[in-house]
Design goal:
Blueprint lengths: L1 H32 L28 H40 L8
């Protein structure tokens, strides 16, 4: 029983390899037919002659980082406040336009 399973798995593995080879051949044929790129040889791995030395981590200037973050946050909040003010102005203009037309009056007025 176990041997039957082993033979079946080996047969399936051979079938998969055959399908892979056929598919690779078909795609290569279409690539040549339509002017695709030629398959380039894969580069051979380079032998390691020396062990790479661990480099110390780069040192950071904390004050520089703090100042860059502060500048970025300042710009962000200035832009945010500008957009918020712009939206408020547009809402007020829209409300005034609607009130001039006399279509809608706020219930609190």
């Amino acid at each position: 029983m176990v041997m039957d399973v082993v033979h079946e798995v080996e047969g399936v593995a051979k079938d998969v390899k055959g399908v892979h080879k056929d598919a690779k051949g078909i795609f290569a044929f279409f690539g040549k037919l339509f002017g695709g790129k030629k398959e380039e040889e894969t580069p051979k791995p380079v032998e390691k002659s020396k062990k790479k030395k661990k480099q110390p981590p780069p040192e950071f200037d904390e004050n520089l980082i703090y100042s860059q973050v502060a500048d970025a946050l300042t710009k962000f909040f200035q832009a945010y406040n500008g957009l918020k003010n712009y939206v408020k102005e547009q809402e007020e203009l829209a409300l005034m336009w609607v009130m001039k037309k006399g279509k809608i009056l706020p219930s609190s007025w």
